[in-house]
Amino acid sequence: MLFLIALCLSFAVAFLWQESREKYTAAVVLKGLASLCFVALGLLCSDGTQLARLVVFGLVLGCIADVLLNLRWVFPKTGQLIFLVGILVFLSGHILYLAAILPLSAHWAACFAIGAILTALLMVWIFKRITAKRAFKIFGVFYIGAIMLLNCTAVGNLLAAPSAFTGLFATGALLFLVSDIVLILNTFGAESRQSLRITNIGLYYVGQLLIALSLRFLASG
């Protein structure tokens, strides 16, 4: 497991280096390899239950979406469409994560209500700081809404039943959310910064690794 984690982070660093040099084909390959590592970690930690299978499928969709998001630089003429498809695949992964942990939630209605309020507040804050086409904004609302519902449910599960699984999963989901916020601001904000890109990628991979690793502790609660 430690080898896969180290390999994932090493590929992620190499990906950032190649992307910064505008070597986009090499960057896509390295990013795909980094993402395959968290998929492999999820498979290694999975106990074969329905919850674990849903999480692993979510990790697989995350891997596919990672490649799609960077393919937009390899194929710039269809870049916007590829980006939107990538976001849609990521959204599907979040839905699978949510479906996995929702049966554990004793207060899902309250979690959803809080998630809806936080989504509205967050989107108002984000829209004041970015310039994007309407299609991207619509996708953004659904996307952030899904991951916010996931986070609220994960935190609710952690508060109701603290454990290694609920703690690691909730932390991973939170890092994923923050990573996506940084990505949106860096992609559609006034100025793109390499420091924000590094933050985005770092938080994302640590978040996905924690979600995958959480399955190791599923049987123990």
Features:
221 residues; mainly alpha
Please give a structural write-up.
This protein is an all-alpha fold. The chain has one domain (2-217). The protein contains eight helices and no strands. The radius of gyration is 17 Å and the shape is globular.
Q: What is the total domain count? A: 1
Oligomer: single chain
Shape: globular
**What is the β-strand count?**
0
Distance between the termini: 20 Å
What fraction of residues sit in β-strands? Answer: under 5%
Task: Present the secondary structure layout.
Blueprint: H1 2-20, H2 24-45, H3 50-74, H4 79-101, H5 108-127, H6 134-160, H7 164-188, H8 194-214
Helix pairs in contact: 1-2, 1-8, 2-3, 2-8, 3-4, 4-6, 5-6, 6-7, 7-8
Task: Give a nutshell description of this structure.
This protein is mainly α.
